[in-house]
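User: Second chain of the day. Same drill as before.
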Amino acid sequence: MNTTQFNNYLAHSQKLSAEELLPLIDQYCAQFREDPLYCNFFKGEQAFYRKHYELALKHYVQGREIPLFPYFCFRASAWISEARGRHDKARSFAEKALAIYPEDKTIKRLLEQLKNDEDHDEPIRSIPLGTEEIDALSHLFKEEKIPTPPIQTIHPSEPMAASLNISKIHEHGEGFFFQIHDIGIALNPETPFVENFQSRFKIQDLDIVIVTQPHLANTQELLALYELNYQFNQSQSPLHVIHYYLHPEIYPQLAPVLKPRFKQERLMVHPLNFYENSSDQEKIELPSGMVLHYFAAENNLGICLECPSNGSSSIRIGYAAGSPQLMKQMDACDLIIPGKIKAKTQNSG
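Assistant: Same format as last time:
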């Protein structure tokens, strides 16, 4: 489906009623049934216009390369929030969706509905913060691993990219890489991350590695990145330093291996520790001026990366893999990278 066809569909979706639009969506579903990207997108549209908003969000998230991808996720999350009585979150998501695609009639209708409810002082039901949009994302990976090509790219829309200063987010087999303010961040790199990373980037594009998982499946990839940077520093100037932020259970094993070879690297390996007087959330300042907030649930860590934005307030990017307790911490995030849930093997701890 080319851009013109997609824009034509989007324009039609604003002119037709749901009853009129669903047959057209059914046609597209049949037309693109062999195309995983657009098949998932139009299944999301089917669910959305049938008011199955959580199912819609599940399908949208699987079609990350769709144009205006964040808009569709924000739109579904707005209606999920409204259905669960979280009118403040519904309004927030609706405004984000409308900023990306101002013509959306369903969002305008929702905002008008929320205004009317507010005028009538309708009480808001109390539920755990931040679960509505995360539940649908996390369910994607609890039962099965969704087949994906070796590299996927999330392309935020132009308004989203401008506010977040993120050009793209790559999923390299296992793990993510994204750039914010020209700072390159790798998240949970596992095989074949390095191979795919090198096909698009240079080692000097990577500044920070974050590991939120307690297992050592990513040791090989971390060592490969470490050696690549050493080779670069032997022949190039100025020196390039990569900082590693590690789950506290793997820090003792990896810190002696990721040894500083240059004096500028003396403080490059950091444990994401908790202390006796820690609250539910700890934070650590990154060299780039960002702040990494992290919190624990079961064996994993969740993170919320606070980044300076073009405006007066910061932008927060969240990542969580699994536990509902951990996901409650994601309420303040503007963009969420959905974490994959891996089933434990028989001999895993």
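Residues 190 and 218 are 5 Å apart (CA to CA).

User: Great, on to the next one.
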